[in-house]
């Protein structure tokens, strides 16, 4: 009742309160929102209780205790120590790392290829621009799953067996078991190298700040990149030399059926990685192209008029402005790539979705396992989104 | 609108989940058919032809249930399920019975809310290798890559076997069986492992079946059988006794060809199997109806044998092509393990 009288006063209606109340936009808003909220709450409550009731009827109890049981199954590739004696939770963790590996590498390479192809498509050279156009139009119009299958067949079919593996100086072997390369073990004294690398990174950062200040003050430009990159490369090597080169190489050796030692990139990973990168790069290329076109032509003309060459115009004038347009849709592409990596199931790459499926099947805990997978994917996507929003905030136009 | 729509969809899902737990027999009778979870394509056990007609040992078992329930072996629909989907499909009520070469294990029996009703096929896990690998025993497989299907007991036994024999291996596991076979044939792995019946069935699909051999070792017990949801004793009994009737029929020599003549038999065991009414000395009929206890008609077992066949007939019809001997699946009276409680 107080609600109504409040409303009467606010709507400053004279005497005929009843009818006006019916037409009061504020009250209508509150009531309709309340109804929606109640329906939503009721719906959620009903789903939860119904699920619980059904689980009880099926003699299944909801809980995460099973995560500590031994999984009993092996995975074809894992970044962490994992065997059939490990727990279900460790299997899921191994799966998550595999998802992270293919997603992070995929994002990096798709971005590089996407930027190159995007700029290529704007090239005045007809051969270059049409090559980019053909690539984009073909690849982005073929379903990703199909591309994964095609890459898997392309990776697997022509490669020889382990005994006839393509051999690069007895260090790297390529066969239908994947790419096997030596594994580096950092021995004692490697910390010197790491310390030097970190100090080189900090040093070059300080140097670049200083060189920019100097440029603003004097107009002289130092080739900051050409100075800092060799330093960053040389520092850890110097450190290793000081420590007496403490690197131990674990070379792969063919013994029996397979190679022993070294690190293996399994064909399933290679196929998934190639498919994700080549597919997502087409979308990124289009985003880059639209971002660059959106920067007014007057900007580059003005830049040319100031005497900047083509490369500098692109790097200093066009790209920084284009980035503002590129970053938000680029974020969606990064999220897409991460989520698309769950198609790994199709070729048997043990990513999070694949291990979740196996864990579910071996433990019978569908709701628990898939809610874990859901939360992990959601968190990963939100973190990616957050990082990109932060980056976007940094590059966006600051209006004064 | 969107919200309302999703709410309706959610409630439909919820309702179907509730309905799944009512008495399955009543459900099935209302629907008019049995929804049977089957293998998407395993020669001899469950495989559709190009017209969508299913054949196979597991598939015929579902037909036998339909014959017992409806007196019509065709009142059954098949849901092809891969290893990963099968138990969830049964738990959620999407299927009424799972007859898809699934291994009876303790954890599946006790933690999934499901129950294995019978062992229709005693199997064991084996290995297949290409002849050119020159391997004669599974003990020589140290370091090999092995292709298997995920979500199976196969992948668990494999880990156990290599661990127990202190050998290393690399697993290459796929969700679908076709993918496993393709990877094996393309040389992604050295060995293909599954239940031995499966090895014999799959090798027939290969372009050169002669280039592959099954290793002698059997590394596990794989009792395969139909699965139902826990908590529905009536439906569980029906599925269990469909198998029981098929075995008893074989034992008593009742086949799809002679079942009508057998109705005139004076053997009391056959009379009980076929629910033949017997005359008492005082002229009244004595009831021999064992279908009643299952909630089925008196002709339940007659229909199974008449329309589908006894256990041996179904075995020979489907599995002779794989050249698998009856072995452990012979009747107990012939040195096998197939043994059913008597009908009385």
Order of helices and strands of chain B: HHEEEHEHEHEEEEHEHEHEEHHHEEHH
Number of strands of chain B: 15
Rg calculated over all Cα atoms of chain A: 29 Å
CATH superfamily of the domain at 125-220 in chain B: Periplasmic binding protein-like II
- Overall pLDDT confidence of chain B: 88
Structural class of chain A: alpha+beta
Walk me through what this model shows.
The complex is a heterodimer of chains A (400) and B (344). Chain A has a 4-stranded antiparallel beta sheet. In chain A, helix 7 runs antiparallel to helix 8 (224-242) and helix 12 packs antiparallel against helix 13. Chain A folds into 2 domains: 2-57; 88-182 and 251-395, MetI-like (MetI-like fold). Chain A is globular. Chain A contains 13 helices and 8 strands. By secondary structure, chain A is an alpha+beta fold. Residues 1-20 of chain B have low confidence and may be disordered. Chain B has 13 helices and 15 strands. Chain B is of the alpha/beta class. Chain B is elongated, with a radius of gyration of 22 Å. In chain B, strands 1, 4, 5, 6, 7 and 13 form a 6-stranded mixed beta sheet that branches. Chain B has a 5-stranded mixed beta sheet with strand order 10-9-11-8-12, sandwiched between helices. A two-stranded antiparallel sheet of chain B has the order 2-3. Chain B starts with a helix and ends in a 25-residue tail after the last helix. In chain B, helix 3 (57-70) crosses helix 9 (233-251). Chains A and B meet through helix 3 and helix 12 of A and helix 1, helix 4, helix 5, helix 6 and strand 10 of B.
Question: What keyword list fits this structure?
Answer:
heterodimer, A: 400 residues, alpha+beta, MetI-like fold, 7% strand, globular, B: 344 residues, alpha/beta, D-Maltodextrin-Binding Protein, domain 2, six-stranded mixed sheet, 15 strands, 19% strand, disordered N terminus
